[in-house]
Specification:
CATH topology: Pemi-like Protein 1, Chain: D
Radius of gyration: 12 Å
CATH class: Mainly Beta
Distance between the termini: 25 Å
Order of helices and strands: EEHEE
Strand order of the largest sheet: 1-2
Number of strands: 4
CATH architecture: Ribbon
Number of helices: 1
Structural class: mainly beta
């Protein structure tokens, strides 16, 4: 996704990724850089108010 998509309540889509046949995703470069994810970092999948949140562990 080249530009951010603005959603309701001030939320933004920074990027997107597709789930592979093996249920894997690639974290987009923009997201890795913005949140300083590096190889070996723990990624948490958190449910909050019925929404999925991805956090650095």
């Amino acid at each position: 996704m080249d530009s951010e998509k603005i959603l309701n309540k001030g939320r933004r889509v920074l990027a997107s990724s597709v789930i592979t046949r093996n249920y894997q995703i690639t974290m987009p470069r923009r997201v890795r850089a913005l949140f300083r994810f590096e190889e070996g970092d723990l990624v948490l999948f958190v449910v909050e108010d019925g929404k999925l949140i991805i956090e650095k562990g």
